Amino acid sequence: MASALFFEGGMGAVPVKAAENTTGNGTNGSEAPAIDLMQEVTTTTTTEPPAPDPVVKMQRQIFVSVISTVVGLIPAFIVGYLFKRKVHFEKVEEREKRRLLQSWRWKRKVGYGIAMVYLLYCYYFLIMFALNKPMDMQKDFTASSSINMVWKMLLKPVLVFAIITLLISAMRTTTLGDHLMYLLPLTLMDFS
Predict the structure, then answer these.
(1) What would the DSSP string read from start to end of 53-116?
(2) Which of 14 and 130 is assigned the larger pLDDT?
(3) Most CB within 10 Å of its CB: which of 65, 115, 132, 148?
């Protein structure tokens, strides 16, 4: 009794008759019939893709970073333009003043609306990205996001506050740190 074996090797199912040898007569060359130890064999071929080349992987990451920066900057420029206000040094009529204030209010509301939609889309994308991955990757994503949030919301502001406080205290009590103060960028001391 011959059964068909199917090997899925990428070219489709190829039938192979079981218990047949090279002579084609069902025997192993002697007069005794061949013993079928396995009537049907099913095989699955799992070929893992080769590891990507590190240079290609880095090029992809740089490309994705550039695209995501451009995608992130477009709404930022639009919202920045909507919140931009022209400073008037000359005297403006009351009617013109009301028109300017009204247009500024509308631009601010539209800017808040665009920013809200963009942020909601970003959060939606992050959540969908995290939920469509395996559970171990979700745990890693959650842990990474939590650590990043703790760093940005708690540790970094406390650290910056402590450094600036120590720097100001040192400047007021001694002249030893004056040469370091001249090396720091002036925007570090801008508290506006």
Answers:
(1) PHHHHHHHHHHHHHHHHHHHHHHHHHHHHHH--PPP-S---HHHHHHHHHHHHHHHHHHHHHHH
(2) 130
(3) 115
**Dihedrals phi, psi of 135, to nearest 5 degrees:** -60, -40
**pTM, full prediction:** 0.45
Would you tell me the crossing angle of helices 94-131 and 54-83 to the nearest 10 degrees? 150
- 3-class secondary structure, 42: strand
Cβ(40)–Cβ(3) under 8 Å? yes
| Residue length of the chain | 192
CB-count exposure of residue 76 (10 Å: 0-12, 13-18, 19+): exposed
Residue-wise over 125-150: b if at least 16 C-beta within 10 A, else e?
eeeeeeeeeeeeeeeebeeeeeeeee
Alpha-carbon gap, residue 34 to 21, rounded angstroms: 9
Query: At 4, which amino acid appears?
Result: A
Q: Which residues are CB-neighbours of 5 under 8 A, at least 6 positions away? A: 15, 16, 17, 18, 40, 41, 42
Confidence bin at 98 (pLDDT 50/70/90): very high
pLDDT tens readout for residues 53-67: 888 888 888 888 888
